[in-house]
Each structure stands twice: as structure tokens, then as C-alpha cells.
Amino acid sequence: MDLRPIGIFDSGLGGLTVVKSVFDILPGESIVYFGDTGRVPYGTRSRETIIKYSAQDVNFLLTKDVKGIIIACGTASSVALEHVKGQTDVPIIGVVKATARAAALATKNKKVAVIGTSGTINSGSYEREIKKADPDIKVFPKACPLFVPLVENGYAKSEAAHLVAKDYLLPLKNEGVDTIILGCTHYPLLKDIISDIMGDDTVLVDSGGPVALEFKKMLMQKDMLNFGGGKPTHEYYVSDDVESFSYLGSLFLESEILHQVKRIDIDKY
Ligand code: DGL
Q1: pTM higher than 0.90, yes or no?
Q2: Within a domain: 249
Q3: Which numbered atom of ligand 1 lies nearest the CA of 41?
């Protein structure tokens, strides 16, 4: 048993969708979360910048003596996973592989859409992993760059978000996909709208459950699972305004996190 916390990072709020699943699937674990709110979005940036930011995020989490790291960001997982793995012996997993496998299992007509940031879609990461799981699946990728700013600014349930989503998603619906991967961890916050447009028959696959399960399996294999070593602690760090993150984060996690959020200078790492 290893009592140290799990490190989790994202460019902002989106990774909290993974945190929520970690709370459900790994309830005994403490977590340290970093949301790079001062530099969000990652998804429109160059490969070099995404790698640099991700490396700093990992360096910061390592100062918190984490036992493993979940990259709760589709973009950083797609672009920087291999690079940051080379930074440390602490195990690091991204969201892509587990999520792609879950979608490959879910589809019946073998037509799977992937929505994500431009960085994720341009990397081809999901398509590669889906094809590894089942080469017969036809993949329909679509970048949705306006979704992250809508979520980060508290517009996840707005009419504006609905209009934008319609524009992005109707072509995918017309292709007849029966499964859609929410390939950016911000997108589960738009789940109601996405589901409304795609219809009840389309399966929405997000990263939280699959990646938390994969991480649990890894902890068990390494004998690192915390199954009841005291009350778990939850710490949150951001690189910009504490209040707005706390407000939206508390709403999403359905528990008040204001006093657990601190601001750091990520440029120091
Ligand atoms: N939540 C992120 C992702 O999964 C980051 C989005 C962004 O910063 O552009 O891709």
C-alpha cells in the first residue's frame, strides 16, 4: 500500500471530470490537482508549447510527492505523454488509450466519432488507438475549438453552446455514428447539449471512468493502491484566479472546494 497522493493535471477545469471518476472508483486515494488556468487553452497551441507546459505541470506535481500521475487532458495526452514519461520513474498515464478502447467496445455499427481540440484531432491519437483495438472501425474526427472557452467561461449550458454544438455535431450525426468520444476532458460538461443533438441512441464515451479504472489496475499491479489508510485529502492548484476556478469547480464537483484551492507560479517549474 502506498499512501502518497495521485497527481492529476489539465489545462483548466476539464480535468475535474476525471477527478470525479477518481473519487468514485478510487475513493481511498488522496489527490493533488493542477489546472493550468493561466495558460488555458492548450488545444490550439504548437506541439512544442504543449510539451513544455505539460513538462512543467509534471514537475510541479512531482514536488508534491505523488505516486503516479494522470494526464487528465486529451491534448497533453495526445501530444506530450511519451515526452513526460521520460522525465520521471513515477508512472504516468494519459486518457487516450483507455477511452479509445472503451469506445471500440461500445460501438455496434463500427462508426465512431471523435471530438476534441485541434491539437488532439491533428495528432491522430484517438484514431490510432481505435484502429489498434479494432481495425474495422471507421473513425470520424472533428475538432471543436470553441467548446473549451465556452466551458471555462461558464457557458456550458447556454444557448450559445447549443448553437455552436449543432454546427460541429450535425455532420457527425448525419454520418450515422453510434458512438462519440468526448476526446477533451472539458466536454463532459457539455454532455446534455451533445446528447440532445446526437440523440439518445448515440453512446457518449468520456475519459473519466476508463482512465480511473486503468489507473486503479496499474496501482493494484504495483501494490500501490490505498485501500483505507486514513481520510483522503484533496488539494487543488491553479496558475490564475482562485475564485473563478473554485466557483465553477465547486458547482461541478458538487462540493465546496474554495479553501482547498491555491495559486502557484507554474513558470518556476
Ligand atoms: N481539457 C483539455 C483536453 O482534454 C484541454 C483543452 C484545452 O486546453 O484546449 O484536451
Answers
A1: yes
A2: yes
A3: 8
Cβ atoms within 10 Å, residue 186: 31
Note whether 128 and 191 are same-domain residues: yes
Are residues 190 and 118 both part of a single domain?
yes
In a domain, 1, yes or no: no
Which residues are catalytically annotated?
73, 184
Read off the pLDDT band of 230 (50, 70, 90).
confident
Contact 183 CB / ligand 1 (< 6 Å): no
**Cα 148 to ligand 1 centre (Å):** 7
pLDDT digits (tens, 9 = 90+) for 113-152: 999 999 999 999 999 999 999 999 999 999 999 999 998 8
Q: Is the pLDDT of residue 7 over 80?
A: yes
Q: Ligand 1 within 6 A of 115 CB?
A: no
Cβ(123) – ligand 1 distance below 6 Å:
no
pLDDT of residue 49: 98
Distance of CA 72 from the midpoint of ligand 1 (Å)? 9
82 and 114 co-located in one domain:
no
Q: Report the separation in Å between the CA atom of 6 and the middle of ligand 1, taken as the mean of its atom positions.
A: 20
User: Domain limits at 166?
Assistant: 96-207
Residue 19 within any structural domain of the chain: yes
Q: From the CA atom positions of the chain, what is the Rg in Å?
A: 17
Decide: residue 88, CB within 10 A, 0-12 exposed, 13-18 middle, 19+ buried: middle
Q: Is the CB of 206 under 6 A from ligand 1?
A: no
Q: Both 113 and 193 in a single domain?
A: yes
237: left (phi over 0), alpha (psi -120 to 50) or beta: beta
Q: Are 14 and 151 in contact (CB under 8 A)?
A: yes
Instruction: Note the pLDDT tens digit of each residue in 243-256.
Output: 999 998 998 888 88
